[in-house]
Amino acid sequence: MSFIKPSFRHPSAPTNALGLTTQAYEGGISTLCAGCGHDSISASIMQAVWALNIPPHRVAKMSGIGCSSKSPNYFLNKAHGFNSVHGRMPSVTTGANVANRDLLYIGVSGDGDTASIGMGQFAHVIRRNLNMTYIVENNGCYGLTKGQDSATADEGHKSKKGKINPFESIDLVALALELGATFVARSFSGDKDQLVPLLQAAMSHKGFALLDVVSPCVTFNNHPGSTKSYDYTREHVQAGSVVDFVPMEQEITLDQIKGSTQEVALHNGDSVRLSKLNDNYDPTDRVNAIKVLHKHKSEDKLLTGLIYLEPESDNFHDILNLPETPLSQLRENTLCPGSAALSAINTGLK
Amino acid sequence: MSPISTPPLMNKKVNDFVVKFANVNGSGSASANSMFAKAIFRMGIPVSPRNIFPSNIQGAPTWYEVRICEQGYLGRRAGKVELMVSVNPQSMADDVNEVCEGGYFFYDNTYPLDFKLIRDDINYIGLPLTQIVNATFNDPRRRQLFKNIIYVGSLSYLIGIEFSALESIVADTFKAKPKLIEPNVSALQLGFDEAKKAFNEPLPIQLERRNKNDGKIMLEGNAACGLGAVYGGATVCAWYPITPSTSVAEGFEKYANKLRKDPETGKNNFAIIQAEDELSAIGMVIGSNWNGARSFTATSGPGVSLMQEFLGLAYFAEVPAVLIDVQRAGPSTGMPTRTQQSDLLISAYASHGDTKQVCLFPATPKECFELTADAFDIAERLQTPVIMLTDLDLGMNEHICDDLEWDDSREFDRGKVLSAEDLDNMDRFGRYLDIDGDGIPNRTIPGTHAEKGAFFTRGTSRDEYAIYTEKGEAYQRNMERLLVKWKTAPEYLPKPEITNRAASSSSSGNGIGVIHYGTSMAATHEALDQMSADGVAVNDLRVLAFPFSDEVKAFIDQHDQIFVVEQNRDAQMKTLLVNELEVAPRDLQSVLEFNGDPISATQIREGIENNLKTDSVVKSA
């Protein structure tokens, strides 16, 4: 574990449209174990937010409890963060999001935080189609309490102590599809080329976006027999639809759309371009997505990439019929009806 | 049907009696009963109606007890009732026994009364209600609904409700559906005429017009809380259905729809979220408040139990939050449709670790309105949760109170929230740094400034600059600062209300003091006024907030004998007083009532008089 962060940066490091280098998107020094998948995800988040030209302070970093939930401390230190209580990140994010629709909400959770203690809130934040990016840093174990199996540990997986997991695992991607999530993707912390554009697409999606990222725990779950290790994941991963994120400003040339690709426009004008391994895979077909997901699972393959996207849907702000101005910015003159209205109410209560 | 011997005659009683209705729930009786109470209110007579209802939707017994009291005491009157209106055969045996000697049992005599229900010391007055409705209406639903209206019409004749008062209520109720006015007025008239035909003269219990309700309204506490939240600037209400708090969220929704829709865009300048459970509800409230929007939830005891962990987070991370706890009888599911004041301790010390939470105790709908609005200021000023404890009696019954008032010059107190400009003009922002000795640090709202003011809100220990630390000294400094803030709190909280009945210069000791809070107020004042009239002067102090202000300790010190009146088994307010003010437990005597009925003056008076030390008695002036 490093304890000093070098301040030197390449003098010609590229800047984004805001004139900022990725340095402006960095966080505190990580206290996670060296080689932890979570740190790679943090790096990808910084890259994605930088590439999307979002000012760091317009992001809210939300988390629950666990190794994953500590990680928002390690990126975007100009953004506010809220490390709440175990399994309850979705509710805090819901309240925050309803209060101020103008920020970008990045929720970072883990498999224990989501698939066990937080299962209820996970299900309900999906139902509400809250406009947020929900990242599960999925390592199949409870790292911070020293490696107990979590609910996403695969059946038959061998723990570091040699115990075989007898329970069926919970597949959060399959579950999110069933619950009506409007953006569902899976990735691997070791595949930044796939993860960064997926994150960009998720953050640009106007609705709930789940990103289930297999993120190996180097300390407690990276041994032979583990089904969430770097080696096992690399051997079993199958990128179903390789994603490329195309910002609105970027002109798409015919030349770029070649071979087996599909463009899916996002709500804000950006689009996701998919390079597909299989011509028949349409990521806007929920029923087929569920089928393909289960097929891969039965073949012991880990399907990654963008699995499902519903580009046009009413998110929670639309459902609540909220104004464009964030509720947090409304003042007395809008909020308080005053004494005249109260006197009319008194009259009605006589 | 007449009893064997003649029952004792009742002396004429004007504006001082209790009428109780025994109904079947789900039969539409609530609106008829409410019309009855409202008519008395419009006659200018103090009246306090109370629903006594089951945890059930249809078919179980439900009662509506209406106290009419010329003197204006609005607490429940214990004991038997002068008039029972029995419309539920299921509960008749019990209902007959609730009538006082010489009282009246009004019933539907379409069917013969079971002889076992005959008492020879009460009067039976029967009207063939079923027969009347069957002859008048064809539709079974109308028969049922109008049966209720008809008995109200009969009561108009029997006890002197002004018919015009009833008519005015029908007109107001069906303003939007004027077609329903005529049939309802006809049904009232039918009941009136049938009663007049059947009985030679009205009953000796009579209503007479007064003007005691000028400047007053009739409102449920829960609706008042909802309205208070609108006025207090709440924009997010996150809640989970639970009796008896559900109508707080409904009240907020009703008033927000009316008063908070943008007239041009039709957008809602508010959000109401029905959460998946109470944990989520309070989580949303904390998220909204953290992000700069005033937000609240309403729940009852079981919900407060579920919210404990989050309340600890909000206390420690110093996030404002407003929680309205409409208390019901616990523990566990307890008696979910009965009242109690038994969530005091779980609220005051909510969550694990060393925590103390600010609590408010309203006693009237007007205070529900005012204190809800105030709660948002207090929560933001102190950067901590504020738990307002009402109860089922206050929340779900209509109570008479003074007209609601609002000062248009009032501004929301957002507390020490820093703007981008403030941040530009300061060196280093310390989220948990006490800058001026009151224990309250500066706070920033996410998104305010591009470079400064961001920090990681967390439930783990950190230093003054919100940097994670496991250093014991830093942790302890922070916990001690929270205590400084706790000591600052009473400055921003409502002061206790003290009523002195004893003459100030007394030779016979320092007298008796009674401490009470919330809905024990009406019955306590009634009991003490009675005692005072009988020559024993007792002062009282009503607690409106926790932490206690200095006046509470001073009041205890000033009196020889202190009674604490509360509606729970374990003397929870006494425990708080002992714990926080270092009062000796033996110096506080409890008057406790916890059977689920609202406390009455009789019970309080007995509780005090049975334990009076003669040398502490001060004669009333």
Describe this structure in words.
The complex is a heterodimer of chains A (350) and B (621). Chain A is an alpha/beta fold. Chain A has one domain: Thiamin diphosphate (ThDP)-binding fold, Pyr/PP domains (Rossmann fold), CATH 3.40.50.970. In chain A, the strands form 2 sheets. In chain A, strands 2-1-3-4-8-7-12-9-11-10 form a 10-stranded mixed sheet, sandwiched between helices. In chain A, strands 5-6 form a two-stranded antiparallel ribbon. Residues 252-259 of chain A have low confidence and may be disordered. Chain A contains 12 helices and 12 strands. With 621 residues, chain B is α/β, with parallel strands linked by helices. Chain B folds into 4 domains: 13-206, 3-Layer(aba) Sandwich (Pyruvate-ferredoxin Oxidoreductase, domain 3); 219-402, Thiamin diphosphate (ThDP)-binding fold, Pyr/PP domains (Rossmann fold); 420-492, no CATH class; 497-619, 3-Layer(aba) Sandwich (Rossmann fold). Chain B is built from 20 helices and 24 strands. Chain B has a 7-stranded mixed sheet, sandwiched between helices. A 6-stranded mixed sheet of chain B has the order 3-4-2-5-6-7. In chain B, helix 2 (92-97) links the parallel strand 5 and strand 6 (99-108). Chains A and B meet through strand 2, helix 3, helix 5, helix 11 and helix 12 of A and strand 9, helix 7, strand 11, helix 9 and helix 11 of B. Strand 2 (80-83) of chain A pairs parallel with strand 17 (456-458) of chain B.
* Global geometry of chain B: globular
What name goes with the CATH superfamily of chain A? Answer: Thiamin diphosphate (ThDP)-binding fold, Pyr/PP domains
Q: State the share of residues found in helices of chain A, binned by percent.
A: 25-40%
In the CATH hierarchy, the architecture of the largest domain in chain B is 3-Layer(aba) Sandwich
How many helices of chain A does DSSP assign?
Answer: 12
Low-confidence blocks of residues of chain B: none
Mean pLDDT of chain B: 95
Shape of chain A: globular
- Helix and strand pattern of chain A: HEHEHEHHEEEHEHEHEEEHEHHH
